[in-house]
Amino acid sequence: MAGIGDDCAILRIPAGHEALVTTDLSLEGIHFRREWHSPEVVGHRCLTRGLSDIAAMGGEPIAAFLSLALPRNLPQGWVDQFLKGLLKLAETFHVTLAGGDTAESRAGILADIVVVGSVPRGQAIRRSGARPGDRIYVTGRLGGSAATLKLLLSGRKLRPADFQGHFHPLPRVEAGRILRKKRIASAMIDISDGLSTDLAHICEESGVGAEVLAEAIPLASIGKPACAVDLNFALHGGEDYELLFTAPRSKRVPSRIAGVPITQIGQIRRGKHISILDPMAVRSELRPQGWEHFRLRQ
Question: Which pTM was predicted?
Fold first, then answer.
């Protein structure tokens, strides 16, 4: 690969593979605040967003492209620490920063990350492969990032080391690769907008419904001493960057993949209704209430 130095980067996709390309924006005041998030954290989270999309299709990340729009009075030290956080995560996943652009912003910081990956031809795990009878699984634990955000909004001063799920989330690239390589997952998505919303995306693309067991959902623990988050954060909170996937009954799904716990939380059903069963087996509709840009807020 030929990266920074010419007008374009030259990427070599392995023979027999297809390219995966994703892009994500990180906007000051929407995805981060400088009074809450250090520049290193902002850089880490910026790249996580793109890597998680690659993971959700079972791909291997190759290169990243970063465009920054920055206020004129932003200290150079902020930019240096932002890049430090981004490049540290890039090194972990053997991703090259291959190019990008910079511009002046008159309305806060904007970071646009493009990540390019690859997947063997015809093997990308899509959202459209779920079938009735498939079981529903998640990696890791859910709700930690949204619960942390609520504490920040309340004015709490937090120590990032005690809230790693929010400040330093890890994209599940290796877990996604194994799910693809072993042909376990029939459909997959990353949980960036909230379990309820992202499950609805799978159901819509696959033309199916789903039933989720509330007591099966693995809840994140945050703080010190650690406390489990409320179920609503796990259902509707975003930015967990875990993987939500379905698998046929015939597939054996390990309890851990790449060191990450795997939990069955429900089953795909016929029709298009998505429901949730509480611990008393009372069924109710599970409406998508996670993050959606431009949705009318009540």
Answer: 0.93
| Per-residue model confidence as pLDDT tens digits over 180-221 | 999 999 999 999 999 999 999 999 999 999 999 999 999 999
Q: Look at the alpha carbons of 197, 291, 124, 142 in this order and tell me if their dihedral is positive or negative.
A: negative
Can you tell me the distance from the alpha carbon of 244 to that of 56, in angstroms, rounded to the nearest whole number?
A: 8
Q: Amino acid letter at 8?
A: C
Distance CA 177, CA 293 (A): 29
Instruction: Please tell me whether residue 14 adopts helix, strand or coil conformation.
Output: coil
Strand-strand pairing, 209-213 and 274-277: parallel
Classify 30 as helix, strand or coil.
Answer: coil
- The number of helices, as runs of H, and strands, as runs of E, in the chain is 7, 14
Residue with tokens 């690239």: 173
What domains can be seen in the chain, in order of their start residue? Answer: 17-120 (3.30.1330.10), 127-285 (3.90.650.10)
Of 155, 157, 166, 221, give the one whose Cα is nearest residue 48: 166
Instruction: Give the Å distances, CA to CA, from 168 to 24, 41, 142.
Output: 17, 7, 14
Q: CA dist 192 to 48, 236, 258, 289, Å? A: 10, 10, 20, 13
Maximum C-alpha span of the chain: 62
C-beta of residue 238 within 8 angstroms of C-beta of residue 194: yes
Whether the CB-CB separation of 42 and 166 falls below 8 Å is answered with no
